[in-house]
Amino acid sequence: MNNTVSPVRLLTQSPVTEGHFSAELEALSWQGISASHQAKTEQDVRLALAKRRLNIDDFTALISPAAEPFLFAMVTKSEQLTKQRFGNTISLFAPLYLSNTCANECTYCGFSMSNAIKRLTLNETQVKSEVTAIKAKGFDHLLLVTGETNKVSMPYFERMIPHIKPHFSQLSMEVQPLDAEQYKKLKTIGLDGVLVYQETYRRKTYLEHHLRGNKSDFNYRLDAPDRIGQAGIHKIGLGALLGLEDWRTDSIIMAHHLRHLQKRYWRSRFSVAFPRIRPCEGGIVPKSVISDRQLVQLIAAWRLFDADLEMSLSTRESPEFRDHAVRMGFTTMSAESKTQPGGYAEDAQTALEQFEISDERSVNDIAAMIQTQGREVIWKDWDPALSHCD
Ligand code: SF4
């Protein structure tokens, strides 16, 4: 990719790996893709809307400024496709923050190593308390989240997962990127899904926001979904942190990333998420603000691009937005999330939070809202026994 590396810091960078997305990204031009969405016309949008199978050029048209007058038609079609493929359902999950210790410096995150906050890594007793508190709320799908540090890595995951997995039918994680062999090992003890968000696909901007620590290795993170696919993990999650860069260009490159993975790891399911930058300790002002209306356009465009894609909506978004978004194309939502370790079983300690939650309603209130919107809440949509049907 035609990006100049920022002089902010020079740490070891993993090489491009042939056959992985890092090699494909080399051939994509950020400037060329930026120009492509600006050049789309209403005619391009009409053609994309009329198609059954959309390519990346069609997706580009649907997220372009030219598609803004077509929002109603896009959302209507997105609702229909989601209903056909996933029925009338929304699956709920809870994030379990195991640790806020982190050896990285990310400009947008409250867990950054230089932020003077209290650090906590849950021990086995604390993990069991969290599991009990989360189960009491009815959740059966859990997302494990940690900061990124060598102190909270494979030995810790191998110790904790056996205490957690027996209580949940679906276990995903959002932790530091690992090697394929490590993912394979975690799969044998119950890991079903891994989310690794690239934050931004523009190398220059990525390096400006990831100042210290292993996360500043752009290619190693970028190729993590390939390693997850090679390990045969059931679900792979992609995401860009909307606001770090031009959201349209990042989304188009993420569409390339998705197609690259789908061609190679066709036994896996894929999900995408749409986190927008939220206030946090040491937070930053977004470079590219995506409005509510544009976020709706982006969500509908993803659904039209890929009817099988799981799409997840977090409590970063406001109750008003989530209430309206429920029917648009989402398949999965978090509810009553605590973004600090120990947040479910112990009293809230907001100084430990990764970011501020916007939708603070209880899981019962969220479930009631989903039902009011004519949707059914699903607590369990996956069982490891189903993997034998592949
Ligand atoms: S975004 Fe992740 S890696 Fe970066 S500081 Fe926060 S927890 Fe650490």
From TrEMBL:
GO terms for MF: 4 iron, 4 sulfur cluster binding; catalytic activity; iron ion binding
InterPro entries: Aldolase_TIM, BATS_dom, rSAM, rSAM_sf, ThiH, ThiH/NoCL/HydG-like
Gene3D superfamilies: Aldolase class I (3.20.20.70)
GO biological process per UniProt: thiamine biosynthetic process
Keywords for the protein's UniProt record, in alphabetical order: 4Fe-4S, Iron, Iron-sulfur, Metal-binding, S-adenosyl-L-methionine
CDD domains in alphabetical order: Radical_SAM
Pfam families referenced in this protein's UniProt entry, alphabetically: BATS, Radical_SAM
Species per Swiss-Prot/TrEMBL record: Marinomonas transparens
Top-rank taxon: Bacteria
Biotin and thiamin synthesis-associated domain location: 273-377
Entries under SMART domains matching the protein: BATS
Protein name (database record): 2-iminoacetate synthase ThiH
Cofactor(s), by name: [4Fe-4S] cluster
Key word Acetylation present: no
